[in-house]
Design goal:
Blueprint: H1 2-8, H2 28-34, E1 42-44, E2 50-52, H3 57-72, H4 87-103, E3 117-121, H5 128-137, E4 140-145, H6 148-159, H7 162-165, E5 168-172, H8 177-180, H9 215-221, E6 240-245, H10 253-256, H11 268-271, H12 276-290, E7 295-302, H13 305-318, E8 322-330, E9 333-341, H14 352-355, E10 359-364, H15 373-386, E11 390-394, E12 399-404, H16 406-414, H17 435-438, E13 446-454, E14 460-466, H18 471-492, H19 494-499
Parallel strand pairs: 3-4, 3-6, 4-5, 6-7
Antiparallel strand pairs: 1-2, 7-9, 8-9, 10-14, 11-12, 12-13, 13-14
Helix pairs in contact: 4-5, 12-13, 15-18
The chain binds S-adenosylmethionine.
């Protein structure tokens, strides 16, 4: 029983290793001794460990205030009820973006390489991402928001920190119709501005997003019809290295209050949007198509794993060149990050060490119950057949013998798009140089064997070995094997492959 339970437990990615709190979580006792205003919120459990009451908004706000001051030198405050960010959790998103930018999979579009420029959609009164990004990494930001409270308090939080204030611009989103009309928008799509009526069960916000359809329809369609998000807010000629967003996750305040274990505040304007995060992020995706040359990376947080799948499908539909996802875990809270780009990925470099190898292997972990060695072998077979190579399966030894000509190999490598978690097809013009251009193909046919071994339930080992040992052949074999690995991981352990980017 015990074993069974242990086996079911999924290994969870932890806090980002560069996160200040990854090795040293906030020390409440120390903070209480240094900051008298925090002291009343700290109490000691039976185990002698200091705690705070996470359901007390004043306690969580004071913790955020002292952490920003103590660890980041930031002077910060928000009024009662506004969304209060947890610093370790928000830092994870910043570090993930740092990883995306430094991976250089997507080449820089900003000629001023030292000045990273980000756009924070919905910066909130707390303005947490620009403050963290500027103080930790020296990035400059535009932070947008629609509410007066957010605009006023984000500006205050910037002004009280002169060390970063030159790096941050707070931009109020114009919620009036004209600002959101693209050339191809029709009158039917018009939004209400200012004080017009809103859906009965909605959130009472003055500028609530409304469609011209009935309220019921709007809920069913789950399409966003609120103030502009990117398109209409980004100015002509502006370019950014990335955008980020912690969207209004919920469709109603009832849904937003389902977690009684914490109190991080959050007004309806901050937490809710018709259609919830799915509709909001879908609009960001639509905007990104129109602004594909203005950003290197588009990113957003996603609160529900179930929404990730349909958002990724939407991204496929609009022809992005890459999608990356990650998981942000803090305590009991789990969120996901999604990032995409329209810029062709840079060429993948194959290290000489790897290129020499003629015996290679990789693990397929986290396979769903219905998938085993047989299904994986069948996928190996179709992977090579699709490109015209010969592939003979041996079901007894769980192996496949492949013979591929130069043309077959080039065909396989032409489909390669680099070290991507979600490499999507795009039209030919956008195609990056693939390793078919960079790795010499052998003059003779290449023969190799792929064998699949069952390790433990849910985990398979895939081995590949070249039948003839020869340096140049080993180079191309490495590329083919890497491509096979990407395809099998995408098919059989999608979530896992797309998660651990830390
Ligand atoms: C969940 S809060 C996030 C606040 C802050 N970024 C954080 O992480 O704590 C979402 C924010 O998006 C803002 N918002 C909603 N619609 C928006 C839009 N169309 N453009 C910009 N901000 C918007 C809300 O006012 C709110 O401040």
């Amino acid at each position: 029983m015990k074993n069974k339970k242990r086996r079911r437990e999924q290994p969870r990615p932890t806090i980002h290793p560069r996160n200040k709190y990854s090795e040293n979580p906030p020390d409440f006792a120390l903070l209480a001794s240094l900051y008298p205003s925090f002291n009343p919120f700290v109490f000691y459990g039976r185990d002698g460990r200091p705690r705070i009451d996470w359901t007390d908004f004043n306690a969580t706000r004071e913790l955020t205030r002292v952490l920003l001051l103590h660890d980041h030198g930031l002077d910060w405050w928000i009024p009662d009820g506004q969304l209060c960010p947890t610093v370790p959790n928000r830092s994870n998103y910043i570090h993930w973006i740092e990883d995306l930018l430094s991976s250089e999979i997507i080449p820089k579009i900003n000629s001023n390489v030292d000045n990273i420029r980000g756009f924070d959609i919905g910066t909130g009164a707390n303005c947490i991402y620009p403050l963290l990004g500027a103080s930790l990494l020296g990035w400059s930001f535009v932070g947008s928001d629609v509410t007066d409270a957010a605009f006023e308090w984000a500006e205050r939080n910037v002004k009280t920190n002169p060390q970063v204030s030159d790096l941050i611009e707070i931009r109020k989103v114009d919620t009036c119709i004209d600002a959101v009309l693209g050339e191809d928008s029709s009158k039917e799509d018009l939004l209400f501005c200012g004080s017009k009526s809103i859906c009965g069960n909605s959130i009472g916000r003055e500028l609530a997003p409304i469609s011209s359809s009935t309220c019921d329809d709007a809920v069913e369609e789950k399409s966003y019809s609120g103030p502009p998000i990117l398109f209409g807010v980004i100015r002509d000629g502006e370019t950014f290295d990335f955008c980020m967003c912690n969207p209004p996750f919920f469709e109603s305040m009832e849904e937003a209050s389902l977690n009684p274990k914490t109190s991080c505040g959050g007004t309806p304007q901050e937490m809710v949007c018709p259609g919830g995060e799915k509709a909001f992020i879908t609009r960001i995706i639509e905007d990104s198509v129109r602004l594909k040359h203005s950003f290197r990376w588009f990113t957003s947080m996603v609160g529900r794993k179930s929404n990730l799948k349909s958002l990724i499908a939407k991204l496929r539909e609009v022809g992005v060149t890459i999608v990356k996802t990650t998981e942000f875990v803090q305590g009991q809270t789990c969120r996901w990050g999604i990032a995409w780009s329209f810029i062709p990925p840079a060429r993948k470099l194959i290290s000489p060490y790897v290129a020499e190898k003629s015996n290679l292997s990789f693990m397929l972990e986290g396979l769903q119950r219905q998938f085993g060695a047989t299904q994986v072998l069948q996928s190996v077979e179709s992977f090579f057949h699709e490109n015209g190579a010969s592939c003979k399966l041996n079901v007894h030894s769980f192996s496949a013998d492949i013979t591929a000509s130069n043309e077959h190999l080039k065909g396989i490598l032409r489909n390669e798009v680099g070290l991507l978690e979600e490499p999507f097809g795009r039209d030919c013009e956008e195609k990056p140089p693939s390793s078919s251009d960079t790795v010499p193909c052998p003059s003779d046919d290449l023969s190799f064997r792929i064998t699949v071994f069952q390790q433990i339930p849910g985990t398979l080992l895939v081995k590949g070995s070249v039948q003839r040992k020869d340096g140049s052949i080993a180079g191309v074999f490495t590329s083919i094997f890497q491509r096979l690995e990407e395809v099998l991981k995408q098919k059989f352990c999608r979530e896992k492959a797309s998660v651990a980017n830390f």
